[in-house]
């Protein structure tokens, strides 16, 4: 069968690592999962209870394309609670995860062949989804001294961009933009007619200061968020997007045709999850402790070049002193230490051969055990350098 050029996207390497870890587990090994970017906790109780109720009483047929009105209103209220913003629920588009929101946003904003900036390092699927839509992803390199967040000049240097995607907290770095820095990026994009897309999927998971939403700065942006991370609902495939008022109908027409509606059962559960903030803030206490353990333990193990993350549940480490092949290094760590970690190549095609991402979204006991194994592995590697791959 023939296939398209735009379908030739790269694999999501972390998924391949997950598969290698699964194979090792099937063969009887015990693996500590520090590769996956998903909470170890289930959806909050209120989400599961809401769905249980709906299963008895509701046919769960199609909903309207933009999502259940009650859910859109509930999400708008979250903006009042988190950022003090009065958001018109009409601007909220419920989507099949933030991944579904990217498809809608990119289709609504860009024409085939247009150039769209993505940060390096950054979430790999932006680039691949853009390619699959016949768009041209342009890597905007960020510097470690800027904590892997872009500066206005980095964006200007990329030349004529139809759009720019920024995430704060970022994946893989976990670093955040403060209000002034985010405002400068939004102004830079506005000045050149570049659509600003703010990926805010890790909002709610922050350690020092609250994350700033692009909506606190401008209404002329696309903001994308999800129930996957703070709300601990990855597999439910439910997220949302906030668009400028004059884009609602444009996105609605696309959503009707591409998806009909987001999954109804997941919308019911998401509405329940909005009322579970105490339980979810409890998960945050676990991430806080995990982060503390890793920031203390990783340097002792030998991973010294790490920047403390402000949010999310990742630590991005420069391992250039140890390898120039992060794929092989991650495979060696999985094989010898029984710890699955993600090679940086997923996030940065240029420098990612010398970086690794550690995820600390799982239970604290797993993180402790992972650290023990990493420490032993690194000690052995130091003692027997010849065994290095
Ligand atoms: C920065 C970022 N954006 C988007 C996603 C996709 O999330 P979902 O489609 O589950 O909402 C992820 C997943 O890890 C991510 O890290």
CATH superfamily of the largest domain: Type I PLP-dependent aspartate aminotransferase-like (Major domain)
- The N- to C-terminal Cα distance equals 39 Å
CATH architecture of the largest domain: 3-Layer(aba) Sandwich
Report the C-alpha radius of gyration, rounded: 21 Å
Provide mean pLDDT, rounded: 95
Number of strands: 12
Oligomer: single chain
Q: Into how many domains do the coordinates divide? A: 2
Q: How many helical stretches?
A: 12
Which regions are unreliable across 5 or more consecutive residues at pLDDT < 50? none
Name the beta content range: 5-15%
Secondary-structure-derived class:
alpha/beta
As for the CATH topology of the largest domain, it is: Aspartate Aminotransferase, domain 2
Shape: globular
CATH class of the largest domain: Alpha Beta
**Strand/helix succession:** HEHHEHEHEHEHEEEHHHEHEEEH
Family: Belongs to the class-I pyridoxal-phosphate-dependent aminotransferase family.
Catalytic activity: L-aspartate + 2-oxoglutarate = oxaloacetate + L-glutamate
Keywords: Aminotransferase, Pyridoxal phosphate, Transferase
Cofactor: pyridoxal 5'-phosphate
